[in-house]
Amino acid sequence: MSESALFNVSLAASHWGIINYFTKIDFANSIKQFINIHYTGFYHLEREGT
């Protein structure tokens, strides 16, 4: 009982660690993309204004 419970906990922890690792990568990439889109969009708007 305790051995299988420990195994399940470690399995869940490693699985969550992998998911967390990939979501961190996706989060960083999406922030970069958002900044790039926002910056270039603002840049184009400013150039059109002048």
Helix content: over 70%
User: How is the main sheet built?
Assistant: none
Strand fraction band?
under 5%
Anisotropy-based shape = rod-shaped
The low-confidence parts are none
The number of distinct helices, counting runs of at least 4 residues, comes to 1
Topology pattern, helix = H, strand = E? H
Mean pLDDT: 76
Tell me the domain tally.
1
Beta strands, count: 0
What Rg do the Cα atoms give?
Answer: 21 Å
State the end-to-end CA separation.
73 Å
Class from secondary-structure proportions = mainly alpha
Give a nutshell description of this structure.
With 50 residues, the chain is mainly alpha-helical. 96% of the residues lie in helices and 0% in strands.
